[in-house]
Specification:
Chain B: Belongs to the protein prenyltransferase subunit beta family. The complex is a heterodimer of chains A (about 400) and B (about 325). With about 400 residues, chain A is mainly alpha-helical. Chain A is built from 17 helices and no strands. Chain A is flat and about 80 Å long. In chain B, helix 12 runs antiparallel to helix 13. Chain B has a domain of about 140 residues: Glycosyltransferase, CATH 1.50.10.20. Chain B starts with 11 loop residues before the first helix and ends in a 30-residue tail after the last helix. In chain B, about 45% of the residues lie in helices and about 0% in strands. Chains A and B meet through helix 1, helix 3, helix 5, helix 7 and helix 9 of A and helix 2, helix 3, helix 10, strand 2 and helix 13 of B.
């Protein structure tokens, strides 16, 4: 009912008849299996034989969500309650048994994921199993999702699963903490977060260095950066130059100085833009970076003992003049690229956007105050954009009228 | 510039015949393997037919009887097929089919309301797809549309907080102005459609950065005229719906080249057997047949009924939605 990338082939009447004949056998087999599974569920069978039936059907058709539901019922209604030692007080044995049953299912799901890496139901069932595991192995999950993102660096489900694993891993580590006091717990939690944040941030650097066009990685980086810059442990390690992970990602030595961090990040994105000025991933990220310094570096969320505050709480990262200087510097840099690439739509777009952002948003000029020279420059660039990128002419025309209205 | 390629047209009669035949393909394995999508498929087919002015192609009484047979008396939700479990995805499709056929009152409405309200997470405002708890912006959209159709989208219902679910949607906003499936997830055109749909239905569109998001959306159009769903991905006819409906909700359909997109959609038709595919030369399916047709409708293609960009229902049946959003 939904097909993607399947080539259309014309078949002759004979080929079609042959195909139908072959399919008739498969249909009988498939429907027979479906009937057996449904009958089993109707009879309230929640044993290993029932589990095996669902294994057969889900291997054939992992999209059959109802059968995943039945599989979960088999666990909760049948397998878990009848595990050995239920009536005894030996909880540890019982939990081991639950883990063993779920581990077997995780193994089964892994095979299904490799077969259908974009099937929602399979990912969902994996999370369900892990949610019920007495001892979930988050390192193994990281390895699995690493493999999936190796195979397809943009897999939407894969990236989402990666964030889920990190969250769960963090929660598990925090839960296992043995703390002397509330303050001690705060410090330790901050350390746990620091480790995970830096690992994940370095992972996005690795993915981006491999392919500047990996927008999924840029996206994740944007989500991690504000957290990293407000993490006290990372700030302290960076200040004391004690972060061993600096070898993994030199950026970690700048966490205590968000302005320097931001400058390094701008330099990084500049590399991406200069490597391929037509790569929209880089430009999307670039615009966010330049227009959101306050959201990115809002300062530490709270002061922890041992870590000096980065900035007084509530103060802003950059002065207004510094922000203006940063945007001017970007305009200059894009201008240099524009000299080499006068027909790059993205360069022209960037020049218009940041010039207007500078004078209207940061300097507070109204359109009536624009100099004739500025007006002419912006208009001629907008007209060039319409010429170079006629698909989006409507956007550029609307833009022209909004720029020149007050 | 006035380069007119072969005058492509929309093969309406072929598509009608194609959709009519879909329900009779019981001798194909694909028919049985896609049972879990049957209710959605019926909605896709019926809506495409409605846009072609040909709802009567399918027997009204048969369709209603089928839909009714999929409602679960205990939970109140609908499954995709009679023996399939209830899920929000099939529950919305069932209700949309009934709106098109003007037969909402033939099912247990109180049951549907009970089902939908029971799926909200009272803390985060997330909506679950079913009792197994997968949450996603899609499900907020579905819940809002169902409540709106039934005239029950009250902001202060004791079992359902519209405000909390709106907050959940806003927690899914990203650096590019778009929305992902859950907080933290990357923007994706189909998820953006559901987020904007939910925000339109709940009159919260002022919370969207319209210029930023429209920029991202219009950059989905590729030189071939087709649209992709994320940066650096392949074009696909279904994004003619997810992207253009989103632009329509933002009042910016003119930010893309409608003529080139029309051509891209028309080229993906199977001119012999009917139906539309994801791309030219690929196998057709009812999903792309609807979303290609709906995209053409949004672009004002002649001879098609107008589609509502928020509800994905023909505008001609929108008066049956009991509590539609206020129009700007």
């Amino acid at each position: 009912m939904i097909r993607h990338g399947v080539k259309r082939v014309r078949t002759t009447a004979e080929q079609l008849a042959l195909k139908k004949k072959r399919e008739a056998i498969k249909i009988t087999e498939y429907r027979g299996l479906v009937d057996r599974v449904n009958a089993s569920r109707a009879q309230g069978c929640y044993n290993l034989a029932a589990l095996d039936l669902t294994t057969q059907l889900l291997t054939w058709n992992p999209e059959y969500y109802t059968i995943w539901n039945y599989r979960r019922e088999i666990f909760t209604e049948g397998l878990f309650p009848t595990l050995p030692d239920l009536s005894s007080s030996d909880l540890a044995t019982k939990l081991d048994s639950v883990q063993a049953v779920l581990d077997a299912d995780l193994h089964f799901i892994e095979a299904r994921l490799k077969q259908s890496p974009k099937c929602y139901w399979i990912w969902n069932h994996r999370k369900w199993c892990l949610g019920r595991s007495p001892q979930p192995n988050w390192a193994r999950e990281m390895k699995l999702v690493g493999m999936i993102l190796e195979y397809d660096e943009r897999n939407y489900h894969g990236w989402e699963y990666r964030r889920y694993v990190v969250r769960q891993h963090e929660a598990a580590l925090i839960k296992a903490l043995d703390s002397q006091s509330e303050l001690d717990a705060m410090v330790k939690i901050d350390q746990i977060k620091s480790n995970l944040l830096r690992t994940e941030f370095a992972y996005t650097t690795k993915k981006i260095n491999k392919n500047f066009s990996n927008f999924s990685a840029w996206h994740n980086r944007a989500k991690l950066m504000p957290q990293l810059l407000s993490n006290q442990t990372s700030i302290a390690l960076s200040r004391k130059k004690q972060d061993e992970q600096v070898t993994v990602d030199p950026r970690f030595s700048l966490v205590h100085d968000p302005l320097a961090f931001l400058r390094a990040e701008i330099e990084f994105i500049r590399q991406a833009i200069f490597t391929d000025p037509d790569d929209q991933s880089a430009w999307l990220y670039h615009r966010w970076l330049i227009t959101s310094p306050r959201a990115i570096c809002s300062g530490p969320a709270a002061n922890l003992p041992g870590a000096l505050p980065l900035l007084p709480l509530g103060s802003t990262l950059m002065t207004h003049d510094e922000e203006i200087d940063m945007v001017k510097c970007e305009i200059e840099s894009i201008g240099e690229l524009y000299d080499y690439e006068p027909d790059s739509k993205w360069c022209i777009y960037g020049l218009i956007f940041f010039n207007v952002y500078l004078v209207k948003t940061l300097e507070g000029q109204r359109a009536v105050d624009f100099t004739a020279e500025f007006q002419e420059d912006i208009r001629s660039k907008l007209h060039k954009l319409i010429e170079l990128d006629p698909l989006r002419a409507g956007q550029y025309r609307d833009w022209e009228s909004s720029i020149f209205s007050n | 510039m006035a380069e007119t390629t072969t005058q492509l047209k929309y093969f309406k009669e072929k598509h009608i015949a194609y959709i009519k035949d879909l329900g009779e393909k019981t001798d194909e394995l694909e028919y049985w393997l896609s049972e879990h999508l049957r209710m959605n498929g019926l909605y896709w087919g019926l809506t495409a037919l409605a846009l072609m002015g040909s709802v009567d192609t399918l027997d009204r009484a048969d369709v209603i009887a089928y839909v009714k047979s999929c409602q679960h008396t205990s939970s109140g939700g609908f499954g995709a097929s009679p023996s399939h479990d209830a899920h929000l995805l099939s529950t919305l499709s069932a209700l949309q089919i009934l709106v098109i056929l003007d037969a909402v009152d033939t099912v247990d409405e109180a049951g549907i309301l009970r089902y939908v309200r029971g799926l909200q997470d009272s803390t985060s405002g997330a909506i679950y797809g079913d009792s197994y708890g997968e949450s996603d912006t899609r499900f907020v959209y579905i819940a809002f549309q169902i409540l709106s159709i039934l005239g029950e989208l009250n902001s202060n219902h004791p079992q359902f907080s519209v405000e909390k679910s709106v907050d959940f949607i806003m927690a899914c906003a990203n650096l590019d102005g778009g929305f992902g499936m859950v907080p933290g997830a990357e923007s994706h055109a189909a998820q953006i459609f559901t987020a904007l749909g939910a925000l339109t239905i709940s009159n919260q569109m002022h919370r969207v950065d319209k210029d930023l998001l429209s920029w991202w959306l219009c950059e989905r159009q590729l030189p071939c005229g087709g649209l992709n769903g994320r940066p650096e991905k392949l074009p696909d006819v279904c994004y003619s719906w997810w992207v253009v409906s989103s632009l329509a909700m933002l009042g910016r359909v003119h930010w893309i080249d409608g003529a080139k997109l029309t051509e891209f959609i028309l080229e993906a038709q199977d001119e012999e057997a009917g139906g539309i595919a994801d791309r030219k030369g690929d196998q057709t399916d009812v999903f792309h047949t609807l979303f290609g047709t709906a995209g053409l409708s949004l672009l004002g293609y002649e001879g098609l009924e107008e589609i509502n960009p928020v509800y994905c229902l023909p505008n001609s049946v929108m008066h049956r939605v009991r509590q539609p959003p206020a129009t700007n």
